[in-house]
Specification:
The chain is mainly α. The chain is built from 11 helices and 2 strands. Strands 1-2 form a two-stranded parallel ribbon. The chain starts with 10 loop residues before the first helix and ends with a helix.
Length: about 190
C-alpha cells in the first residue's frame, strides 16, 4: 500500500496519516483539538506532538474549550509544570486565549466549524501534488484565515499554522495523488 512519505516507518505517524490526517472535520470539539495540537506543533516535529497527544488530552480537560476558556492563573501554572505536555508558556497562554475566542466565534456563527469552513467555500480543496516537495506551507486561504483569526484576537494563528490545521482538518486534501488515502478522502 502506497502512502505519503512523511510518516516514514513510525507506527504512530502511520496510524495518524492513515486514519485522521486530511479527513474533513466539522465537530467543534475535534476542530479545537486539532487547533490546539497545531499551535503546540509550531517549530517542532509533528511526531513530538503525537507522542504527547494523550497527555494534552488529560491536561487540557479532553480539549473542552468551554472549560479551558475558564482557566485561571492556577491552571496555567499547573500546565507549566505538567510533563505530559509541551510546556511552552506562550503556547499554553495562547490555548487559553484561543478557547475564549473560539467561544466568541461559536456564538457569532452557531459553530466554529461553520466559521472556519467558509475560508474554503465549505468544501475541501483537492490538490493534486505528486511529490512532497510540491506541498505548500501557506495558501491564499490560510492567509485569509490567519488575518481574520488574528483580528479576532487568536494567538499562534499565522498562515503556516493555519495551513497545517487546514491539512489536518481536511480543509485541503494534501495527500499525494499516489497515496491510497488521496482517493479515499477525495471520494468521501
Amino acid at each position: 500500500m502506497k502512502r505519503c512519505p512523511w510518516p516514514g516507518n513510525n507506527l504512530l505517524m502511520i496510524k495518524y496519516h492513515d486514519e485522521e490526517w486530511g479527513v474533513p472535520l466539522h465537530d467543534d470539539k475535534k476542530i479545537f483539538e486539532f487547533f490546539v495540537l497545531d499551535t503546540f506543533q509550531a517549530g517542532l516535529s509533528w511526531e513530538i506532538v503525537l507522542k504527547k497527544r494523550e497527555g494534552f488530552r488529560k491536561a487540557f480537560d479532553n480539549f473542552d474549550f468551554r472549560k479551558i476558556a475558564k482557566y485561571t492563573e492556577k491552571d496555567f501554572e499547573r500546565l507549566r509544570n505538567d510533563e505530559r505536555i509541551i510546556r511552552n508558556r506562550a503556547k499554553i497562554r495562547a490555548t487559553i486565549v484561543n478557547a475564549k475566542r473560539f467561544l466568541e466565534v461559536k456564538k457569532d456563527y452557531g459553530s466554529f466549524g461553520k466559521y472556519i469552513w467558509q475560508f474554503v467555500n465549505n468544501k475541501p480543496i483537492k490538490n493534486k501534488w505528486k511529490n512532497i516537495k510540491e506541498l505548500p506551507t501557506t495558501s491564499m486561504e490560510s492567509d485569509a484565515m490567519s488575518i481574520d483569526l488574528k483580528k479576532r484576537g487568536f494567538k499562534f494563528a499565522g498562515s503556516t499554522i493555519c495551513y497545517a490545521f487546514m491539512q489536518a482538518a481536511g480543509m485541503v486534501n494534501d495527500h499525494l495523488t499516489g497515496c491510497f488515502r488521496y482517493k479515499e478522502i477525495s471520494d468521501s
